């Protein structure tokens, strides 16, 4: 793992498809660590243990499922959190302990933000870190290409065009300091934003192809 913020760590990349990378992120909190997304790298579990283990794991959508979910849950006695609409896919690999279905606040200042569109149960997470930073985990609802430009996660085979537009418009109203996607191009999975206007511009980049009738 490598540290990307005072209390946030990024796992080694995985390559599920050509030109596509993914990471998981460990949010190191005094009340119990939180893992966002998923990793299948066994050596990262030792790194998690060195940082205090995993109390909860949050999935943003079904593409993050795999056999490692059960491995992480067993090793750390952690709670797995996933959206109600994704349960069928998630529970092929591991039981879900906390079912997400609505906008709400969880411990460790984590706000659950349902953002359907990429998949029916796509969910983002807004974290108010004790450091003062706001971390927004966008899953595949919004990701970054190799140049760091905002892109939408529309896939014709599984996505809802209108729902994704609404979800991106909602994300545009937030003011994150650090935005961390699940999948991304070669440029990296996160970007820091200095103000709300720069974040709004990034979302507009992702929205434009959808609103113009095109897709990324």
Keywords:
single chain, 216 residues, alpha+beta, 6-stranded mixed sheet
Structure description:
- The protein is α+β, with helices and mostly antiparallel strands and 216 residues long.
- The two termini are 30 Å apart.
- The chain is globular and about 45 Å long.
- Strand 14 and strand 15 form a beta hairpin.
- It has helices spanning 42-50, 68-76, 87-90, 161-172, 196-211, and strands at residues 2-5, 8-10, 14-17, 20-22, 25-27, 34-36, 56-58, 79-83, 98-100, 104-106, 110-114, 123-128, 134-139, 142-144, 150-152, 178-181, 183-184, 190-192.
- The strands form four sheets. It has a seven-stranded mixed β-sheet, with no helix packed on it.
Average pLDDT figure: 93
Please compute the radius of gyration using only Cα atoms: 16 Å
Strand order of the largest sheet: 1-2-5-6-7-8-9
Helix content: 10-25%
How far apart the termini lie comes to 30 Å
- The outline comes out as globular
Please give the count of helices. 5
Q: Major β-sheet, in short?
A: 7 strands, mixed
The succession of helices and strands, N to C, reads: EEEEEEHEHEHEEEEEEEHEEEH
Report the portion of residues in β strands: 25-35%
Q: Low-confidence segments, ≥5 residues, pLDDT <50?
A: none
